[in-house]
Each structure stands twice: as C-alpha cells, then as structure tokens.
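Ticket #4471: structure export looks truncated?
Reporter: QA, pipeline team
Priority: medium

Steps to reproduce: submit the single chain below to the structure queue and open the exported record.
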Amino acid sequence: MSVAKNNIAVTILGSGTCVPSLARSASAVLMETGGKRLLFDIGPGTMRRLLETGVTIHDIDCLFISHFHPDHTGELASFLFATKYPDASTRKKPLVLCGGPGLTSFYRALADVYRGWLDLPDILDIREFNGDDPEAQAISFDEFSVSAARVVHRPESIAFRVETPHGISAVLSGDTEYSENLVLLARQTDLLICEAALPDGMEVPGHMTPSLAGKTASEAGVGSLVLSHFYPECDHSDMEGQCRKTWDGPLLLAVDLLKINARKHIGP
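Actual output as written to the record:
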C-alpha cells in the first residue's frame, strides 16, 4: 500500500470506547502523509485493525497519545513489547512517541511494571508537548508538522493538528468537553475528527455530544467533520440529526476501518 505524499489519508481504526464491542475497537486513528504513517492513540484492538489495513507495527513512524486513559493507551505496552520480537520484519527505524505533559513518566512507569521488557534503546524517541505556549506546542518533521492544544478532559489531554507543506491539515480532538482551544486549533482545517461520546441530553463532564461537536466545527470553519468515539448509546440515537442542529457541512459517522482523504478546504 502506498503512503500518501501530498495529502492526508485517514483510516479510523477504532471508533469506540472502553466498552467491549465486536463492531468498534477502542480509540485509534491512522494518518498517512509525506511517506510516513502516524498512529493517534492505541486502544485495545488497534494492532489487529492495523493488520486489517495492511500495515504492521513496524510501519508506524510516530505514535501520538492524546491522554492516558486505557481506552487510548491500552495496547501501548503490547505494541512496544511486540516491537522487540526478533524476526525479519523487526523495526529498524526510530519510533517517535509523542504526548502531553507526563508522557515520559507514564512510559517509565509502564517499563518499570514490565521489568524492562518495553525498553527500546536507540529506537524510542519520546517527545512531550508541554505548557500552553503555542510555539512550544509544535513539532516539525521533514514531511509534516504536528501542533497541539490543551483540551478539557485530563490534565495531560491534548488535541492534535497535522499539516502538510501543501497546507492540507487534519485535526483529532481526543477526548474533551467543548473547548475554545480546540476551536482555535481546528480553525480552517480540512478535516476535524471529533469525539461525540454520547447523544444530546446525555452529556457528561469531559466529553461532547453531536450538537457540541457540530458547534465546534461551525465555529472553526472546518471543511469536513467526522464524529467518533461512540459509547453504545450512540448506536441507538440519531447522531447525524443531532449534529445537524449546529453543523450543515460534510459529515461522516465513524465506523472501524472507515477511510477518508483530507481534501483542501477553502473557507470564508
């Protein structure tokens, strides 16, 4: 499978939550751009979904963690342990692991629990997005850049924006309540993948509903909106109709293995 060079190819690997489901794996999104493969979150079921797309764990160049809840990090230990398996496909290139404040401590705690089985000397490059200074919240690679913004969920919670040299961008909200920081980060992005964990009328702290996700997309002036991170209650609700209260642009409801191409958006 070729990796996108001039666009951002997105695959929803996991559209669900911590609730076990045969249809929805926990949170994970694959983005491919500039010849690189970027994995955002790694909830249970991610590695199987990767294989279903024809991608191995050794193909991943960067792994981004939005926050430390198990439905977003549950397969991190397994991913790192599997990376050590000595076969013909063993990883030979660095793995960049990025996340919010405390990521290094989180990794070291996991490595300590697993008695060094997750150690990847000379391969693992851990980078943290720290503080609220926008200039300190961007990491530039040769083929793309990734910026981040704090959102309202956990102290380490961040949303990510990927941007190519051609100006194509995609934003992943992570888990969050409605957040002005997310609106700013997603301004004029071509694609916003936004959590809408529960239907309207069932809002809980730390999460959004479809109408709040639509409000975010409208205020940010995004090109297209994808709703994801669905609890089971969402499967029996009119998520599209609720989102249409606040958003009239292109809209998709995520399912596992949904493929999307971020296309250049020219907005007001």
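Status: closed, not a bug. The export was complete when the record was re-opened. Leaving a note from the reviewer for reference: The chain has one domain: 8-262.
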